[in-house]
Amino acid sequence: xxxxxxxxxxxxxxxxxxxxxxxxxxxxxxxxxxxxxxxxxxxxxxxxxxxxxxxxxxxxxxxxxxxxxxxxxxxxxxxxxxxxxxxxxxxxxxxxxxxxxxxxxxxxxxxxxxxxxxxxxxxxxxxxxxxxxxxxxxxxxxxxxxxxxxxxxxxxxxxxxxxx
Amino acid sequence: xxxxxxxxxxxxxxxxxxxxxxxxxxxxxxxxxxxxxxxxxxxxxxxxxxxxxxxxxxxxxxxxxxxxxxxxxxxxxxxxxxxxxxxxxxxxxxxxxxxxxxxxxxxxxxxxxxxxxxxxxxxxxxxxxxxxxxxxxxxxxxxxxxxxxxxxxxxxxxxxxxxx
Lengths: 164, 164
Hints:
The structure is a homodimer.
Chain A: E1 23-26, E2 33-36, E3 38-40, E4 46-51, E5 62-67, E6 75-80, E7 85-91, E8 94-99, E9 104-109, E10 114-118, E11 123-127, E12 134-139, E13 148-149, H1 152-163
Antiparallel strand pairs in A: 1-2, 2-10, 3-4, 5-12, 6-11, 6-13, 7-10, 7-12, 8-9, 8-11
């Protein structure tokens, strides 16, 4: 038998079993939800678990991480026609404004336990990045430039049309 | 039209288009690969993009993050029968030893740009966590206690059987 690093044994099964306590908060913006993820605290290390299509409302095809954003920068400023996104600020802080064409709300993302779900047809802006901020985004689709709505006026005409 | 945060406009399409430069390195351990992910550097902020079933070899059903692990702790010490995993140390540092029953190798995970792919039937141990380490793990399956092989002897007998 190959000798192995570490002699301290412990039962790790519990550490990856989802805790039953995640919560989902609705918002003023259509379909946008704020997710408080499960934390399992343990002397051997803490664990956060989230399952796709469960705590995160979709299966991701892609992720991206944004970091080293100057505090004056505003990112996002677009909506997606069909892509779903889930945002977690895994270090530092940033804020997200989400807008459904009628209502908008600012959300503060400040840690591993908070996820923001943005359904398609949500105009979103990320800003107020702290110098150390790292924003992790899960996306339901591969990159497709045709999925972007970059004009707020076009976004409004599409959402108002849809809501009539 | 709703007034909007931020007046500085820029074209953000380029920032989420995958860079063509990710690389995949093979290892001494069967099926285990070290992935150098794409970085897009930009004055407005840097971006890392990875696509599932492309740079990451599977679609994830789940992710978990491990942090606040005492430096003396050893985590993992198991293999999976069918679950694929992809590990990124998104803050700080940790090391992973991967073992296929014949060969083993230590990998150093020290940042957002390095991902380690562990196929099923890979014995893996994580250790040498720095105090600020955060290990992000994508898993191809939901949590299933029956997918774990927790005995190294059983792992060896299964892998040796498979390789005969």
